[in-house]
Design a protein that fits this description.
The chain has 245 residues and is an alpha+beta fold. It contains six helices and twelve strands. The relative contact order is 0.21.
Amino acid sequence: MLNDWIIPDWPVPHNVRALSTTRTGGVSTGVYASFNLGAHVGDDSAAVVENRRRLRETLGLPHEPCWLHQVHDARVVRLEGAAITESADAAVSSKAGEACVVMTADCLPVLLCDAAGKTVAAAHAGWRGISAGVLEATVAAMQIEPGEILAWLGPAIGPQTYEVGEDVRAALAQDRPEAEQTFEPSCSGKWFCDLYALARLRLRSVGVRHIYGGGFCTFTESRRFFSYRRDGECGRMATLIWLEG
């Protein structure tokens, strides 16, 4: 499984572990084939339980991660050891073995850690979350000097395929005129939106300078990634980060 999963290429401390799953390596079938980790998308619950068990076993996690109930907002939770479900779109942890995890199928997963390897975070950043300030809120919740934070951008829908309306462009550029540079007009009269560029802009605005990753496209890479925009009914990938003891 690990041969297909994505290990971030970024200069983090040796005790920081991170990974993005793909759609392969599990037991789910049909539109959820095969490594769906979302329990809220209509897949067989027993298959999701088995897929999550395989994830924990493969990564050597001591217990179940805290699977967030993602609501496209800017709420951040600090994990304290309990495998609970919280309504939030980001999580922060300073405890070894406590994995921060977000699920995606086109939205952008963003991982963060400090240069000392003492605090990690994961954020779910679709356009609504970015507009709401989820990345800025996550950086603030880490309570680390932003210049000491490293960020990695995981697999999301790419800028050549993510077409949005004028309402989305206006919402993102309303109080951030510089965000207009992350949009390109499409032939249909709409706009192509670059989630990766938006995330970099927002992170840099709060002082995060060390940003890695990007370049994936969940929509076009159909054999590797789930994509809600492409398929509608589909599974979810997970992007995780944690500290080793």
